[in-house]
Amino acid sequence: MEIDIPKGQKGEKEVLVTEKNTAKAYGSGLIDVFATPAMVALMEETAHTSVQDFLPEGMVSVGTEINVKHIKATPLGMKVICHSVLERVEGKRLFFTIEALDEVSKIGEATHTRYIVDAIKFVERLK
User: Fold this and answer.
1) CA atoms within a 13 Å half-sphere pointing along the CA-CB vector of 19
2) What whole-number distance in Å separates Cα of residue 19 and Cα of residue 69?
């Protein structure tokens, strides 16, 4: 299987900080600010959606590693924008750099690795 995703492929996603994605709601803290787990989920979503259309039918990418820094808190009502860049492809492994910004400044950064799998076979192996 040949993977033909252009190096530098970019992704972007945006969310609004609401009571549903705060540290308090996730149980990762006691304050109503954008939760680290919510930021990580946004980062993974941004990366995977940026490459999905390049994958053959039935193939998906799954997250295998993320190294993240949550630099700054973001309050309720503020937008968070996430940008991903595909840095390289090694066989079925995809390597990304990702950053998250709120309306004021950068709030997080990460490196992220995903692996391309056949969705049906992947789920079958779990049984």
Assistant:
1) 0
2) 22
d(CA 24, CA 3): 40
Tokens standing for residue 85: 């860049």
Q: Which domains does the chain have, with CATH numbers?
A: 10-125 (3.10.129.10)
**Tens-digit pLDDT profile for residues 48-88:** 999 999 999 999 999 999 999 999 999 999 999 999 999 99
Task: Return the number of other C-beta atoms located less than 10 Å from residue 107's C-beta.
Answer: 22
E strand or H helix at 24: helix 23-26
Kindly state the DSSP code that residue 21 receives in the 8-state scheme.
G
For residue 123, what are the contacts with CB-CB under 8 A and spacing of at least 6?
A: none
